[in-house]
Amino acid sequence: MIDDEALVREALRLLVSSFPGFEVSVSHPVGAVDQARRSQADVVLLDLLMPGHDWLELLAGLRALEPAPAVAVLTASEIPGAVGAALRAGACGFLLKDMHPEFLEHSLRALAAGGVICVPPASAEAVAAELMPVGVIEEPVLSLDNVTEREREVLMLLALGLQNAEIARQLNIGVTTVKTHVGVLKSKLGVPNRVVLASVAQKAGLA
Q1: How buried is 54 (Cβ within 10 angstroms: 0-12 exposed, 13-18 middle, 19+ buried)?
Q2: Could you point out which of 47, 73, 103, 138 has its C-alpha 20 to 30 Å from the C-alpha of 120?
Q3: Average pLDDT of the chain, as a whole number
Q4: Above 90 in pLDDT, residue 33?
Q5: Number of H helices and number of E strands within the chain?
């Protein structure tokens, strides 16, 4: 958890520590990327409003780690344009600080399993508008020319909403292998994250 407020960090540390199976590390924005690297974090919650600290720069630093953790943006209130910006920058979701603890636990487990966090329903239309390029009338057609047969299978299961562990079971391969395929697919198809990847695959009729 990356937050500039010590009280928030401690509260979240105590809460998440109560969830079975979780090991928690909290950090001030300064040095947060290095700490995430040292701890080999699977999931990172990144506060959105931290005066004097660029959350997009922190997000980019986290996404550049190898292996990269799943990052969800966390904020006290919805901010116009922030959801789209976070998803385009590679975040796996967007969470509000007023969520119920059970939803937080569910979200963290989904992220750790390679899933994504649904944006609050009230934001759905706004997010769609943010992610749609201005002036585009027809959506681009997905080209699978450079996609291998195995990558296509992974893409089809992604389009059906399966998480990495479920895809691994379906294809009888390792979870790490699934993560590698997803990373390659994002690169080949030019999409920022698995949210957009699954959406594009669905629009291409792969679901």
Answers
A1: exposed
A2: 138
A3: 80
A4: yes
A5: 10, 3
Q: Is 56 helix (H, G, I), strand (E, B) or coil?
A: helix
Do 114 and 159 contact (CB within 8 A), yes or no? no
Residue 197 to residues 88, 96, 148, Cα–Cα distance (Å)? 11, 24, 16
DSSP state of 69: P
Within 10 A of 74 (CB to CB), how many other CB atoms are there?
Answer: 25
Kindly report the pTM of this predicted structure: 0.62
Q: Is the pLDDT of residue 34 over 90?
A: yes
Ranking 34-38, 49-53, 168-172 by mean pLDDT, the lowest is 49-53
In whole angstroms, give the CA distance from residue 116 to residue 71. 10
Contact 149, 99 (CB under 8 A): no
What gap in Å lies between CA 174 and CA 2, rounded to an integer? 30
d(C-alpha 136, C-alpha 134), whole Å:
6
Side-chain half-sphere exposure of 89, counting CA atoms within 13 A: 23
Sheet holding 43-47, edge to edge: 43-47, 70-75, 93-96
Query: Quick check: 111 and 164 in contact, CB under 8 A?
Result: no
CA distance 164 to 44: 18
